[in-house]
Write a structure and sequence with these properties.
With 452 residues, the protein is of the alpha/beta class. Helix content is 58%, strand content 7%. It has a six-stranded parallel beta sheet, with helices on both faces. Helix 5 packs antiparallel against helix 6. The longest helix is centred in the first third of the chain and has 33 residues, at 64-96. The protein is elongated. It starts with a helix and ends with a helix.
Length: 452
Amino acid sequence: MHKIKVLFMTLLLTISTNWIGVLQGTAWHRAVEVLFGLAAVAFFVCMNIVPYTGRGKEEKIAGKRLKQLQKGRYLIIYTMLTFLVNTAINISLGLHLEFASTGSIVLFVIGIVGWLLGEGILLLNGSIRLFATSVQMGIRYRVAIMLLWWIPVLNLFFLYKLYRLAGQEYEIELEKIELNEVRKESECCHTKYPLLMVHGVFFRDARFFNYWGRIPKELIRNGAEIYYGNQQSAVTVAESGKELAERIKQIVQETGCGKVNVIAHSKGGLDIRYAISEYDVADYVASLTTINTPHRGCMFADYLLEKVPEGLRKSMAKRYNDTLCRLGDTSPDFLGAVTDLTATRCQERNQKIVDSESVYYQSIASSMSKAQSGRFPLNFSYDLVKYFDGENDGLVSVESALWGNVYRTLKPEGKRGISHGDMIDLNRENFSNFDVREFYVNLVQDLKEKGF
């Protein structure tokens, strides 16, 4: 029934975008033709303001973004269908219409112009809605549509891809909403101690965009209480550890929570381990979960620092430090941060710092299946890291990332793999073999069940 209604709406839109062509050759009374035209225009305007999607029941639980996404998606499919039907109609008219009079030619041309204008409005309306609301569309499809919209057949191909992509995004997000509604009362992520999420190197928590992507909102929807490390983006492990120790004490003092559960990504795991061991905050940390953290360092980092000339190193460091200052760091140390990620420095530090017996340590590692399965620059660095360190996520080897009482590796399924950026939802990307948001929900739920 839904498909029949969509086809019926497509038929009406076909008429409304090409009503002059549809009426050509008829002997209707002029008043009837005018009324028909006004009705067609009115229907066209209404469909552009409130496109028919036929998903009323589902859209009751969907937010504004998803509703607009769905409307944009339907406008795209209406554009493709009406374009194909109207193309056939106008070809037929062009072959059979008598062009004996100038009036017939003018009317035919007006019909063509009106049709293309109507299709353009539908396409622009749908594209704007999708461009504004789709997270999964990405830069590639946006650029492709803007550059190639005028090429016949190719533009229809890209429009269909957008239609499919938006449909998948809508279904996934709607399923998320329904799942969260079902488990809302259980508050499966409401742990005994709040979560402290610690970012990695060269990023900040949420100054311009959230380092953890869509993950925090998903955890909060399921009852989690979340704080952020707020440490500088690029300083030594010791300096970051000091900042995190102060942050933990501040949270405990201000909230009275007693302890925190720390989830740390990449270098953030090294920073927090140092804070626990060297800055006396072990009593304030219930658990530490490190995500793709180079506990044993990166041998390829040793290689790069050795091969890059000193002058170039200093020049790069100055440019990075200047940029990081503008982004909010007070005393960035690019070279210090990078050096602390080397295998040599991590080995030295691991001999110095000792894990606390009162803290539950666990670690997660992931790996890519091949270079092409990661976004830039991880697709570039994957083979280099593999040469020096073995199986890796584009930056950190699996062997280096495993640490603590419990550890596990997320193995790639198929061609995609799971990159360093995928583990923090860096690209806000949905892919079939790994649901990063649900992974963190299960992770925090497990902490709750363990009494943390």
